[in-house]
Design goal:
This protein has 116 residues and is α+β, with helices and mostly antiparallel strands. 18% of the residues lie in helices and 29% in strands. The mean pLDDT is 88.
Length: 116
């Protein structure tokens, strides 16, 4: 199965799994480094620095299909910067760059979902 097809099926499974509890945030990074992902589209008015505490960021696809593709890290406590849409985590194995696609799971580790 092609990667695109896999992720279409996976997105549907994830949406069904979470149901009405919480939405998975999907996006494309604008920039970052090994321990910061910035996505201006994720700047949520009314949110707080604790809004995404311990949510799981999975790097779904990188521009070069290399690391940190597939890696998962938890958002640090107080690790969300509302004004910029930036998430602080423990370091990924490589720098996050513009156009890297990610998912932010609020409750369930994405690797668990991948085993369903």
């Amino acid at each position: 199965m092609a990667t695109t097809e896999f992720y279409k099926v996976r997105e549907r499974v994830v949406d069904l799994w979470y149901g009405s509890r919480a939405a998975v945030l999907r996006g494309t990074g604008d920039s970052g480094d090994t321990d910061t992902l910035v996505d201006a589209a994720a700047a949520l008015s009314g949110a707080t620095a604790d809004h995404f505490d311990y949510g799981y960021i999975k790097i779904r696809q990188t521009t070069d299909n290399l690391a940190p593709q597939g890696e998962v890290r938890a958002v640090d406590e107080g690790g969300f910067t509302v004004a910029t849409g930036s998430f602080e985590t423990v370091a990924f194995s490589a720098t996050l760059t513009a156009a890297d696609n990610y998912e932010l799971h609020p409750e369930i580790h994405p690797d668990f979902i991948d085993t369903l």
